[in-house]
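Students often ask what a 'structure token' actually looks like in practice. Rather than answer in the abstract, let us consider Amine oxidase, a protein of 429 residues. Its sequence is given first.
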Amino acid sequence: MTDVDVAVVGAGVAGLTAAFELGKSGREVRVFEAADVVGGRMTTVREDGYLIDTCAEQMAERGYPATWRLLAELGIDRTSAPRIGRGIAMWRGRARSGVAQPRGLITGAGLSPRARLDGARVIRGRFDTERPESSRLGDRTVTEFAAPYHPDLLNYLLQPVVSGFFGWNPARSAAAPLLALLTSVGPPRTWRVYSDGMDTFARALAGHVDVRTGFRVDRVVADGTTPRIISGSREISAKAVVLAVPAPVAAELYPRHGSEFLSVCSFTPVVKAHLLLDRPLGGPDYALIVPTAENGTVSTVIFDHLKHPGRAPEGRGLVTLMAHPAVVPELLDASDEDVAERLTDATEHLVPGLRSATRRAIVRRVRHAAPEVTPRALALRAAFEAGLGGPVDYAGDWVYLSPCSEAAVRSGLAAAKRLARLAVEERAR
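Now compare that with the structural description of the same chain:
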């Protein structure tokens, strides 16, 4: 006898989706989450009337079909995730609006005329978000891909985007998944945000499944007998286990899998300082991305109160500062006070009055924030996916090497489908 039919490790969107889908077919599923809350990289902190999105900041209207179908099934309509309705600016001596929008080809958005023309050429072609390795770009990094074009395309568009949203290094990260994602999600003004926090989706899923928070799994054992999860001195057996955690964590929990893909599927860390303001600042754009050439300490400034008015109490403001990838390693172990001071000082000239408007700073560190898609990982991805389907399975956006919640949802659905097929095969034996 097993303690549970299916054990899912990780209560992020991928794990909760897999558990929800398996539960609909009558499977007994239990989700184990080390944190005290569900959501993984889609969590929200509620503090003094502020809603603080700790990692994921927005979702897309386009390119998220599996997410929207599942939201509808949960009874969450589009009014619960309204359009942000504002754009993204690029800092080049000043904030320049129109990044990743058609108007940017006219206004410039910080790019020279030649770079604008090159940008229009770049987005042509077909890219597959589920199979990024099939792209004609092959294994080129972002830097290698941009080399034939005007330098502005890399320095004032691609580098700020990959570093500012994903924490990637363009010299190390593959271009194909980036372009697949950018061409699928549409312009920023159509992007959406859950009005009650980015954890809305996860909380809705968790309401339909058995979740044990504050439960740390130390390792997974599958040595020819029933798979088991180990937590301290406690063992829980299951017919199947789904590891819905970042790839480096999955590799530590279950090293016996021995996948080369798992060993090279790295994640980038992110450090953020959320500044609770006594007044709103910024505008008209809800986000400002900052090229390395212009700063080097801060990569993104998000005006959360412009992203959605419910993110801050009336008459107040909320601004999130995302550290540049180059300084993240030293900030991971710095004190909260040092992190907040350093990021605020580096942003003051971008957002005048920021220091005096700040009432309080909340610092968040996410050590596994986004899968960094290296060319080596891209080359191994398809074979890894083809080999899935055993009693220990995997879910997460990293399975598709696409850093977005839609990929996490799709991976959870795929894991549930594979386990359903495995159960049928076992009954037929």
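One point worth highlighting: Residues 405-428 form the longest helix (24 residues). Ask yourself how you might have guessed this from the sequence alone, and why that guess would often be unreliable.
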